[in-house]
Amino acid sequence: MIPVETLAAFFAASVILALAPGPDNIFVLTQAALYGRISGIFVMFGLCTGLIVHTTAVAFGVAAIFKVSEIAFTGLKIFGACYLAWLAWQAFRASASEITGSAHGKKSLGKLYRRGILMNITNPKVSIFFLAFLPQFADPARGSLTVQIVLLGGIFILATLLIFGGIAFLAGSIGGWFSRSAKAQVIMNRVAGTVFILLALKLASTSR
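The structure assignment produced for this chain is given below.
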């Protein structure tokens, strides 16, 4: 069993990492500002579902493939960058009426959830980060490493839910103002499109 003090240190480190500006929390911020806090929360759930995938991959050693295989790493990286570029194209072409209309549809919440999943799992850097970060707090002497990794992954996800939830709530509070201004909606969507492009370029240029 992992000592309480080790779990506390891991949770504190996870909170700090979740607060550090990065693609995922910026993604939650822009989507919550565009579509409201509920939409931001669904994106957050999608991102955290992706973290479950990464945790499972690390626990069972699959993430090691992306660390040693240039082809696997590059393939997933290119797919993720193309997906972000497609999101940017959608954001740039959307009109104010499309933004307002999609902000209230139940189907759009499902799309935002799936968008969060794809955003997270198509970034091989997350798997490699988990592969380097989680095992530092595990110890074979305490029992099954797989169980320990899953536990640590769950704690990391909890920290992410708390921080990203706060970001979604705060960013969503300005969403009401955007929904009443067609011009502001278009401007914000252009900002979101620019963010997607920058994220795509950053992902495409990353190396192991």
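Interim note for the steering committee: Residues 97 and 182 are 8 Å apart (CA to CA). The two ends are 32 Å apart (CA to CA).
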